[in-house]
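Question (not urgent): is this output format expected?
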Amino acid sequence: MPSANGKPLVLFVCKHNTGRSQMAEAFLRRIPGDDVEVASAGTVAADRLDPGVVAAMAEMGMDISTARPKLLDPAIVAHADRIITMGCDVEGVSRVDDDWGIADPKGQPIERVREIRDLVCRKAGDLAKSLLRTELGPQQHALELQQQRGRDNELKVAP
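Got this back:
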């Protein structure tokens, strides 16, 4: 169910809002652009983002260094179309639509933070496709699939 402006609102929730949920928010802002509203929050917000997460995101050209951990806002929870937790034990969330079950990058070596970042990126990409497909409706989605098949057939080389 889209928000008042017609765009779905996705809320990523983590305990401290310093790593996974911040990455998910950044990726979902970038992947579908303005077609999706996105927010992240923590049930116990910390003072700053995890430096390893900031560094790993910078490697992908995404500067999240100015982002700040935010506390969960009941008003955003009430309006969210999807609430996704990241795999941490969060309390005070009235509903959870999905849990991504992703390891905490805090204190991990940069190699492990990159693996976590890449997993968050893949999941955010899948979510964006799902949200946009839902927003298109079944008829438009079927038309897009048909057009894609046509393009795929054009790319095939005759024997």
